Amino acid sequence: MLSRVRASWRRGRLVTGVGLAVWGLALFGLAWSAVMAQPPTSQQTTQATRPAEAVDVSRLQMLDYEIALLRAEIALRQGDRNAFFPAYEQLRRLPAIHEFELRWQWVSEQAERLGWLTEDVVSAQVTGFAQASLADRMTLIAPLSGELSPAGLALKQVLLAHYPHKDLSFVDTTDEPVAVLIETIEATGADLLIILERRELTSRLAQHFHDQPAILFHPARVLDPRFQRVLNPTYEQQAMALESWLTGQHAQGITWLQWRDASSHLINRVNLQLGENYQPLIVESNAQLNDLVAQRFGHQESRARQNWLARVIERPLTGIGRSRQDQTLVVFYGPIEQAMLLRPLLEYHQQDLPILWLPSELPDPTFFKSNLSRWQSTYALLPSHFLAEVNQNKSFETEDGLFFALGEVVVELIRRSGHLLPDQFATEFGEVFVTERGEFSLGQQWYYLNAGLVPVENVD
User: Fold this and answer.
1) What's the distance, CA 300 to chain centroid?
2) What domains does the chain contain, in order, with CATH numbers?
3) Side-chain-facing half-sphere of 158: CA atoms under 13 Å
4) Whole-number Å distance between alpha carbons of 460 and 457
5) CA triplet 425, 271, 265: central angle to 5 degrees?
6) Which residue of 57, 112, 143, 342 has the smallest Cβ count within 10 Å?
7) How many helices, marked H, and strands, marked E, lie in the chain?
8) How far is CA 155 from CA 64, 87, 203, 279, 407, in A?
């Protein structure tokens, strides 16, 4: 919710009273103990415990301060020390704001009364990745030039939009040796690292900075949820969703078709999770897709038997070849152009089987939307951020769109860094899941495509 309030503020649509309304709701529902004093109002004249600094505070800084203040107040009423300390430390690092001085004094007094502000307690509570929300200096390590730069530049844009008051550094990894990168990163003095690079380089950097809060976009050999959050690979998310479908439907007799350029990671993961040995039929071209479907469902054998019988009885035979009926499901892992051909091909070969399409690469949102009417009876697994692009008519490219979405997820991960794992939260791009191992992912959703798009709520 707080992230959405932040977004509304930034776009100039935040109603002035939102913070007070939320504060009032918290007071109504979260009364904790008679020993707790009520927070001061603007009419009270109690002197603050620290003077407000005379600074030119931006609206965004004021919103950051009020959000942190509200989190601290709610945590006090709930008696939740784990939630209190990240908010309290953030307040201590932000410039004091005169409008909130009485509320800050109340928070400090109540925390002292509870014995929460002793040095030992504070240092024990805010450690590891929990420090991410307190970071004053953040460093993005990513390709920022050359062919691989769009994703890095998308993340950079998101960070600049959300943290104009923080010390941001951007390290371009293009054509730089590891030793130089490590030296450059260390020179930034960052409290939080955000690393977007290929798997090998990510692993080396994560190992070197293993005791520093970091968000990684590729799995690293060193994975410590005390310090790191790691993006779960897309094929892992697809495998989990497919496993749920196959087990829920007790599917047997599965035909797996896979486009030539698609990675083998997905089927390997599915085989591992289900204890199966599915062997994909590799599709090299559109013509071969038709041949493989005909071969898989026995249509060619039926035609061959018909021709043999015609030669034996020495008279022509007409009729439709018979296809095998022991298959129950078709899984296609490949691009959109071939996925749209499958239903007509199966119908030609007398098959009315469910088709599950898992994109090996996300289609262009504009192309996808303009061709929705051409789909016929196909189930598609799509990430939530992609449908957000389609619905909002985003103009950026698909890869950029993914990393704009992931950038917003990173902002929320930083804000929630003090939360216990596993964690789950909502964003404008859908649900985000964080496992107990610190792996985060945007949700994947099944949709039924048939001259339109309908979410599938339950596959069991």
Assistant:
1) 45
2) 2-126 (no CATH), 132-231 (3.40.50.2300), 235-296+324-455 (3.40.50.2300)
3) 21
4) 9
5) 65
6) 112
7) 17, 15
8) 20, 25, 20, 38, 5
User: Which amino acid makes up residue 257?
Assistant: L
Q: At 426, which helix (H) or strand (E)?
A: strand 423-427
Taking alpha carbons only, the member of 327, 307, 328 closest to residue 316 is 307
Does an H or E element contain 161, and which?
helix 149-162
CA–CA separation, 293 vs 252, rounded Å? 18
DSSP string, 5-57: HHHHHHTT---TTHHHHHHHHHHHH----TTSPPPP-TT--PPPSSPPP----
Spatial neighbors of 26 by CB under 8 A, at least 6 apart, are: 70, 73, 74, 77
Greatest extent of the chain over all pairs of C-alpha atoms, in Å: 109
Three-state secondary-structure class, residue 65: helix
Which residue from 424, 422, 421 is spatially nearest to 442, judged by alpha carbons? Answer: 424
Pairing of strands 378-383, 444-449: antiparallel
**Which letter does DSSP use for residue 277 in this model?**
-
pLDDT in tens, the chain (460 residues): 334 434 443 444 333 343 434 334 343 343 334 334 455 544 443 333 444 443 444 677 788 888 889 988 998 888 887 778 778 877 877 777 888 888 988 988 888 888 877 655 455 456 789 889 888 899 999 999 998 899 999 999 999 999 999 999 999 999 999 999 999 999 999 999 999 999 889 989 998 998 899 999 987 655 788 899 999 888 888 988 898 888 887 778 888 999 988 888 899 888 888 888 888 889 888 888 888 887 777 655 556 555 655 566 677 756 555 555 677 889 999 999 999 999 998 888 778 899 999 999 888 888 998 999 999 999 999 987 787 667 665 444 444 567 888 899 999 999 888 787 888 988 888 889 898 888 898 888 899 999 989 988 766 5
Task: Classify 231 as helix, strand or coil.
Answer: strand
SS3 content of the chain, % helix, strand, coil (to 5): 50, 15, 35
Tokens standing for residue 13: 């649509």
Type of residue numbered 20:
L
Cβ–Cβ under 8 Å, residues 330 and 255? yes
pTM for this entry = 0.63
Q: Distance (Å, rounded) from C-alpha 174 to C-alpha 190?
A: 20
Read off φ and ψ for residue 72, nearest 5 degrees: -65, -40
SS3 call for 224: coil
